[in-house]
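User: Quick sanity check before I run a bigger batch. Here is a single chain. Can you write out its predicted 3D structure?
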Amino acid sequence: MYAEPRFLLAGDSALVVEFGDKVSPDINVKVRKLFLYLEKFSPKGIKEAVPTYRSLMIHYNPLELPLETLRSELEKAIVESANMPLLGSRRITVPVKYGGEYGPDLEDVAAYNKITPEDVIRIHSSIDYLVYMIGFTPGFPYLGEPPRSVACPRLTTPRVKVPAGSVGIAGTLTGIYPRESPGGWRLIGRTPLELFDEGSDPPSLLQAGDYIRFLSITETDYERILKETRGRLQPEIQHLEKQ
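Assistant: Done. Predicted structure follows.
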């Protein structure tokens, strides 16, 4: 974590506030607090704020809000947002069918870590994961961090098509593909949940700051859920205390 946030230009109408140079829950809390503060007290001229692991990109109109004024407003916001309580997080249970056609890389992940596929499933589904950010494709959650004992590098050659709902591992991160898309993460399972729906508000089921817990299910359960709900299963959601 930096002693002082860095301000980085991103073209002529965006400014990045960077809090650190690594993936860290403590750094991410600062990002989320500033994001929530700007949502509530955003000065005129700011069009959008986009949170990531360790930084916040602010898109603004330089004709309404000069860069020098924006930076001054952000310096003030950083100080004031530090004492701002975060909203209560949610813990969302995500059912997953691991292995087989649903997780074609499960055995490779197990072999890489010198454990069994059953060990990978047990370890991967044993902890809560923080949703650091939504990105790459609409609704794609970047989750951290799976235990080192199941971490695995990306594929050397990405797949042209990854099925919607696929759960993957890339290095020390795990994530879920909400739509069919290309991708190079190691696929270990698939969820029948629909993570992104343009007709919903918000369209993304998961939000930065949520926690998720994977639940191993059988192939029969997976197919039943998909048939009965068409992916629109209402997941188990537990509301946590404010941070």
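Residues 147 and 187 are 16 Å apart (CA to CA).

User: Great, the batch can go ahead then.
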